[in-house]
């Protein structure tokens, strides 16, 4: 039996906020912290925590500097981050194909005949 597509999802990447960070960061050479915070509707503290997880995993780099007199923090997607995002999207596409395709997983009644028989008896169907 082949592996289910969900087994290819990466727990670090799949989390909604971290997936959002990677997706936004992929669209630009670098993305500014405030832009990410506002785009994803996060607090600075929440964004910082998720960036820390991604940085520790080697998926992003974080650079601090100045633009004029204002302190700025820029996030860059690493090569590993680009690959992780690509792999996650590939796994999600495989899951969607399985769920929507003609070879979709059988319904519960096909997995457990006893339950299907009980439901049909309750419905009055043969």
Would you kindly provide a written description of the structure presented here, covering whatever features stand out?
The protein is an alpha+beta fold and 126 residues long. It has one domain (5-123): Winged helix-like DNA-binding domain superfamily/Winged helix DNA-binding domain (Arc Repressor Mutant, subunit A). The protein has 7 helices and 3 strands, in the order H-H-E-H-H-E-E-H-H-H. The protein has helices at 11-14, 16-26, 33-40, 44-56, 79-100, 108-111, 113-123; strands at 31-32, 60-67, 70-77. It has a 3-stranded antiparallel β-sheet. A hairpin with a 2-residue loop joins strand 2 (60-67) and strand 3 (70-77). The longest helix is centred in the C-terminal third of the chain and has 22 residues, at 79-100. The radius of gyration is 22 Å and the shape is elongated. The model has no long low-confidence stretch (mean pLDDT 85).
In short:
Helix content is 58%, strand content 14%. By secondary structure, the chain is an alpha+beta fold. The radius of gyration is 22 Å and the shape is elongated.
Helix and strand arrangement:
Elements: H1 11-14, H2 16-26, E1 31-32, H3 33-40, H4 44-56, E2 60-67, E3 70-77, H5 79-100, H6 108-111, H7 113-123
Antiparallel strand pairs: 1-3, 2-3
Mean pLDDT: 85
Backbone CA Rg: 22 Å
| Biggest pleated sheet | 3 strands, antiparallel
Low-confidence segments: none
Roughly what fraction of the amino acids lie in strands?
5-15%
Percent helix range: 55-70%
Q: What is the CATH-assigned architecture?
A: Orthogonal Bundle
Report the span from N to C terminus.
Answer: 31 Å
> How many domains make up the coordinates?
1
Strand-pairing-aware structural class: alpha+beta
**H/E series:** HHEHHEEHHH
């Amino acid at each position: 039996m082949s592996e289910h597509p969900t087994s290819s999802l990466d727990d670090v990447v799949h989390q909604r906020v971290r997936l959002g960070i990677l997706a936004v960061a992929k669209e630009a050479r670098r993305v500014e912290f405030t832009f990410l915070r506002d785009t994803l509707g996060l607090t600075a503290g929440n964004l910082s925590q998720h960036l820390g997880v991604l940085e520790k995993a080697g998926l992003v780099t974080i650079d601090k500097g100045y633009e004029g007199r204002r302190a700025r923090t820029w996030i860059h997607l690493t090569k590993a981050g680009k690959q992780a995002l690509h792999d996650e999207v590939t796994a999600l596409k495989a899951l969607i194909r399985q769920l929507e395709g003609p070879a979709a997983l059988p319904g519960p009644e096909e997995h457990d005949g006893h339950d299907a028989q009980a439901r049909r008896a309750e419905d009055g169907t043969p």
